[in-house]
Design a protein that fits this description.
Elements: H1 3-47, H2 57-127, H3 131-144
Helix pairs in contact: 1-2
Length: 146
């Protein structure tokens, strides 16, 4: 294969790697957002407790209801967090594979450039007359001339 083809392959591999990096960044942001939501739910749950002293029944009822809803929200958040974590892990492995393929394309490009240089040098040497031919021609010319 020629170096031009390997350059095209390298461009494709580099784009694949950038896409995989962006996917991983998106997955990281999604997981971070879900963790912030979980932290906020935990903070609200700790604040949703009755203070010391006299509290009327209506306030206790609303605090209990809010605590119950926050627990349900926290439990419902477990599935999306697990899914986001799995997605992040998958995107990280996809990024690693894309990086390895890009590095492989770089090595192949380097090898093909070196091979093309060696081949062009070989061709140039093939077109040059060798010393033996030049020497033998000059000897032959000497023999022919009186």
């Amino acid at each position: 294969m020629t170096a031009a083809r390997f350059r095209r392959i390298l461009r494709v591999r580099a784009v694949e790697h950038r896409i995989a990096q962006q996917g991983l960044a998106d997955a990281d942001r999604r997981l971070q957002t879900l963790k912030q939501i979980a932290d906020r739910i935990d903070a609200l749950r700790t604040q949703a407790c009755a203070g010391t002293g006299m509290v009327d029944g209506q306030a206790l009822k609303s605090l209990g209801e809010m605590a119950s809803r926050l627990e349900i929200a926290g439990a419902d958040l477990a599935t999306p967090m697990a899914s986001a974590f799995d997605h992040q892990t998958a995107m990280d492995s996809k990024r690693s594979i894309a990086w390895a393929r890009e590095e492989s394309a770089i090595r192949l490009l380097h090898r093909s450039v070196v091979a093309e240089l060696v081949e062009s040098e070989r061709r140039a040497d093939a077109n040059r007359p060798s010393r033996r031919i030049a020497q033998s021609m000059s000897q032959h010319e000497r023999e022919v001339q009186p």
